[in-house]
Amino acid sequence: MKSFQFIILCFLCFMSFGQELPPVETFSTSDYNGENQNWMITQNTNKYIYVANNLGLLEYNGSDWTPYRSPNHTILRAVKAIDNRIYSGCYEEFGYWERHEYGHLVYQSLIPKLGDKILSDDQIWDILDYEDWVLFQAGHALYFYDKVSEEFKTINSENIIYKVFNVNNRIYYHVANEGIYVLEEGEPKLILNDKIVIEDRVIDIFYKNEKLIILTRNSGFFQFVDKEFEAWDVSSNKRLKELNIFSSIQLRDQSFVLGTISNGLVKVSQDGEIDYEINQRKGLANNTVLTLFEDYENNVWTGLDNGINCINVNSSIKTFIDYNGSIGTVYTTLIFNNQLYVGTNQGLFFRSLESKNQDFKFVKGTAGQVWSLFNDENENLFCGHHLGTFLINEDKATSISSILGAWNFKTVPNRNNLLLQGNYDGLYVLQKEGSTWKLRNKIDGFKNSSRFFEINDHNQILVNHEYKGVFNIQLDSTLHKVIDIKHQSELELGKNSGLISYKNNILYTSEDGVFDYIKKEGKFKKNLDLSEKFSPYKSVKMVVDQKGKLWLFSEDNISFVSYDNLTNKPEVTTISIPNNLRKGVLGFENIQHIEKENYVLGTSNGYLTMDLSQIKNKREYHIYLNAVTISSLNDETKDLPLALNGDFNYDYGTLHFNFSVPEYDKFLEVNYQYRLEGKMEKWSSWSESPNIQFENLTFGDYKLEVRGKVGNQQTENSVSYAFTINRPWYLSNVAIFVYLLLLLVIGLLIHKAYKFYYERILRLEHIKSERAFMQIKNEKLNQDIEGKNRELAISTMSIIKKNELLRKIKKELKVTKDKEDISSAIKLIDTNLNNNKDWKFFKQAFNNADKDFMDKIKAAHPDLTPNDLRFCAYLRLNLSSKEMAPLLNISTKSVETKRYRLRKRLQLHHDESLVNYILKF
Fold first, then answer.
1. What letters, b where the CB count within 10 A reaches 16 and e where it falls short, cover 884-921?
2. In sequence order, what are the beta bridge partners of 344?
3. What distance lies between CA 732 and its chain's CA centroid?
4. Residue 240: predicted pLDDT
5. Which pLDDT belongs to residue 13?
C-alpha cells in the first residue's frame, strides 16, 4: 500500500500539465449546425467567417452560425471570399454565393459557363484569388474564371493535381508522380521533380528571403533557390518528420502554423523553431486539422475532422488550462527565486520561469488546500495551508505550525524576526530564531477568522471579517494579547470585501466602494476618485503587485491604478476580461508580476498570463444588421428587405431583428444596446443577445437603432431600420371618413330627435300654459258668472222684495177706510208692480249671467211668447212658485197654471221635470 502511495506521489510530482497557450475557442457540430468535417475557411470584408463543410456552406457572423446546403447536396470542399462573392466548389459543381436583399446567401452556378469543358466525376479541392481570375482546382484540371468577361481558361493534367499555390503572385501546383509546375505566360512549366516531391506530398509553398520554402507531409521543410533543392536547416524539421502534416499557413508575421493528421497543430516561428503544439489534450476540438486560415485580426481558424477552432495566436493573454484536473483550482500564485509557484485546492506546484514548456512539479507534503504564499524578503517562502504553515524550498515543504487554516502573513513593522499570521481562529505570531522559523504565540483576546488584516507601527491591527465587519485591535507591546478592540461601525458588512495596505495607507473595498483609513480620526472615509472609477463591483478583491500597482477585480474588468506624477491623481487602466471568461475564484482573485509587462492571473482551471504591452486599447469594430423577419399570428415567418423601410399591417404578429459584431477574441465579450424611436427614446441596458423582437406595437412610425460594445469599446457605427405599422382597417382613412359620416348622421338624428323631443316638450308646455291660462280665464269667467249670478240673484231678490213690499203696502192701503185718498197710491203701486223696467233690468242681468239661454230655447221652441221666455228665465234660476209670483205679479196658483201651460208648449211628458229640461239649455 505504501509503495502504491509512493508511486502516486511520484506521478503527481512529475506529471506533465501542458504549457501556456493562446486562447482557443471551440465550435462543435451542435454549435454550427453542420456535419463534422470542415475542409476550407475564408473571410469576407465584413469579417464574417465562411466554412466549407460536409453539409455545405457555413456562415458565422460573430454571434450565430447559418448553414447553407451545397447546391447538389454533396460535400463542399472549397470556399473563398473574393470581393462581394463567396466562391465555392464541390463534386461536379462550382459557383458563387451572393447576399440578396433579405440578408441571406443565394447560389449561382458557373458550370453553364464552362461550355464543353465539362467537370465530370471530379471534385473542386481549392479556390485561389489570382489577379482578375478566380482559380478553381479540380483533381485533374485548373479552371481560371475571368471575373470581368466571365470566360474560362482551363489547364488539364493526366495525373492528379495534389495542391495549387499562389506564391508571390505566381501560380504553382503539385502533380502526382511529376513534380511542381509553375505557370509562365499562360503555360505550365515543370520546375522541380526531385525524388522528395515525387514520393512525398507537397503541403504548401512559401516565399521567404528570395527563396521558396516547401513544406512536405512527412519530410519537413525544404528550400528551393537557384534550382537547388535542399532541406531547410531549422530545428523544427526533426519534430516535423515525426508528424503527418496535412495543412499549413504562413501568418502575416512570417511564422507558420502546421496542421497534422493525428497530432493537432504546430506553431513554428519564422526562423523555423517550434513555439508550441496544440492538440486535443490542450484544447483543440480534434487532432486532425484539415485546413488553416488567418483572419483579419490575426486569429487562426482550424477546420477539423470534427469541429472548428479559433485560436487567438496574437492575443496578449496566454492560458494554462488544467484539462486533466491534476492541478485544480488556483487560489494563489507567487514568483520566488525565478520559479512560478501555484497554490491550488490540490496542493502547491511550481516550475521554472525560464522554460514555459517545462512541466509543473508537485511540492511534497502540500497535498490539500493552499490559501496563500508569502515572500519574506526573497529569503523564505511561506505557504498558508489548510493543514497549517509551511516553509517551501523548491519541491520540499517543512511544517512550522500545524494549527489549521493559515490564511495570510504580514511583516511586523520594525521587527524583522516576527511575522503576523491570520488563521481560522484568530491571529498568531511567528518568530525567527537563527535561521529557523517557528510559532511563538497566539494573540489572546481575539478569536475571529482573520483572512484580511493589516498592522501598523503602533501595534494596531485592522481585521476584516466579511460577515462581522472590520475590527480595530490594539495589542500590547509584546504582541501577546489584545488591550483594546472596537468595531468600525461606519462600514457596512460586505460579502467579498477586502483590506489591503497601499502607499502607506489602508484601503477597504466592498460593494459600496473604496474607503481610506484616516489614522487621526480612526475611521474609514470613502475615496470618491477610486470608487467612481471602479464602480460597479462584484468581487472587490484588491492585490498590490511587486511593481506597486494596485489591482482590482470587478465583474466585467480587471483594472490597475497608477498615479499621475504631476497631479498625483489616480489613473485607472482597465482590461476588459469579464469574470465569466477569466473564470477566477470569487474572492480569491490573485495576480503576480512576472517580468517586464507580463503578469500571471490564477483561475479556477489553471491560470492566465497577460502582456500589458500587447493589449490593444483602440480597435475599430462595426455592427451589422443581418436579418429582419416578421412572424404572423399563425407562425408563418417572412424575410424582409434590409435596405428598405418596413411597412406592416396592424396585425403583423412579431417583428424579429438579428445583428452582430464580428469579433472572435475569446476574452472579449460583445454586448448590444438598442432604442426604438416612437416608443422609447432612451437606450436599453446592455445585453449579450444579438436578437430583438417586438410585438403588440401600436400603429405609427418607428426607427430601431442598435449599437454594439466589444469589451469596453463601442462600435464605430450603429445600424438602423425604419418601419411603419399601418392603422388597422377600422382606423384607416376610409374608416375614419365613414365614422365621421356616421357620426354626422347620428348627430343629425340625435339633433332631430332632440328637436322633436324639445318641440314636444315645448308644445306640452304651451298646452299646459294655455290650459293654465284657460283655467285662469275660466276661473275669472266663473268669478264673473258668479258675480253676475250674484247680481242677478240680488236684482231678483230686490225685485221680489220690492214687489212684496208694494203688495203689502197695497194690501194695507186697501184696508184703509178712505178709499179716495189712497186710490192714487194704489194706482202708483200697481204701476210699479207692472212696470217693465224691472223685467228689462232682470233680463239684462240674466243675459250677462246666461246670455245664450234665451237664444237656445227660442231656437228650440220658436213659438214661446215673451212671457213664456220670462217664465223660463225664472225657472232657470230654479225659483219656486212662491218666489216667482211677486215677480209676475200673480198668485202662486197662477204660477202653477203657467207651469202647466209651459209644459204643454214645450211638449214635455208627464214624468219629465220642467226645471231640469230648462237647465239643459
1. bbbbbbeeeeebeebbeebbeebeeeeeeebeebbeeb
2. 330, 347
3. 32
4. 96
5. 39
795 neighbors 877 (Cβ within 8 angstroms): no
> How far apart are alpha carbons 874 and 872 in whole angstroms?
5
- Determine the 3-state secondary structure of 882 from DSSP: helix
Q: In 3-state terms, the chain is what percent helix, strand and coil (to 5)?
A: 25, 40, 35
| Residue that has been written with the C-alpha cell 489547364 in this structure | 155
The helix (run of H) or strand (run of E) holding residue 361 is: strand 361-362
Residue 276 grid coordinates: 508550441
Classify 377 as helix, strand or coil. Answer: coil
The pLDDT-based confidence of 407 (bands split at 50, 70, 90) is: very high
Burial tier of 600 (Cβ tally within 10 Å: 0-12, 13-18, 19+): buried
Rounded-to-integer distance, Cα 487 and Cα 485, Å:
7
* C-alpha 782 chain-centroid distance: 92
Could you tell me if 206 and 250 are in contact, meaning their C-beta atoms sit under 8 angstroms apart? yes
Confidence band (pLDDT; 50, 70, 90) for 670?
Answer: very high
Rounded Cα gap, residues 81 and 552, in angstroms: 43
Most confident residue range from 340-349, 788-797, 847-856: 340-349
CA distances from 766 to 110, 234, 656, 753, 773 (A): 98, 125, 71, 19, 10
pLDDT exceeds 90 at position 411: yes
Scan for cell 504549457, then name that residue: 19
Q: Whole-model pTM? A: 0.78
Amino acid identity, position 172: Y
Contacts of 368 (CB under 8 A, 6+ apart): 345, 346, 347, 385, 386, 387
Give the integer Cα–Cα distance in Å for 876 and 510: 122
pLDDT in tens, 699-717: 899 999 999 999 889 999 9
Longest C-alpha distance within the chain, in Å? 206
Bridge partner residues of 314 (DSSP): none
Per-residue confidence (pLDDT) for residue 874, from 0 to 100? 76
Q: Are 18 and 282 in contact (CB under 8 A)?
A: yes
Task: In whole angstroms, give the CA distance from residue 501 to residue 508.
Answer: 9
Pairwise CA distance, residues 442 & 421, whole Å: 9
User: How many helices and strands in the chain, by DSSP H and E?
Assistant: 14, 64
Provide CB contacts within 8 A for 852, sequence distance 6+: none
Cell of 346: 490540490
Do residues 573 and 560 make contact, with C-beta atoms less than 8 angstroms apart? yes
- Select from 320, 318, 297, 257 the least CA-distant residue to 616: 297
| DSSP state letters, 661-724 | -----TT--EEEEEEEETT--SPPPPBS-SEEEEESPPSEEEEEEEEEEETTEEEEEEEEEEEE
Count of alpha carbons within 13 angstroms of residue 859, beta-carbon side: 6
* Cβ within 8 Å of residue 366, ≥6 positions away: 347, 348, 383, 385, 390, 392, 397
457: Cβ contacts below 8 Å, ≥ 6 apart: 413, 414
Give the separation between CA 301 and CA 311, rounded to whole angstroms: 6
3-state secondary structure 133-145: EEEEEECCEEEEE
**Is the distance from CB of 232 to CB of 223 less than 8 angstroms?**
yes
Look-up: residue for cell 348622421?
745
CB 135 within 8 A of CB 110: no
Q: What digits encode the pLDDT tens for the residues 604-625?
A: 888 888 998 888 767 889 999 9
For residues 731 and 655, the answer to whether their CB atoms sit within 8 Å is no
| Residues 868/902, Cβ–Cβ less than 8 Å | yes
Q: Are strands 646-648 and 713-725 parallel, antiparallel or unpaired?
A: parallel
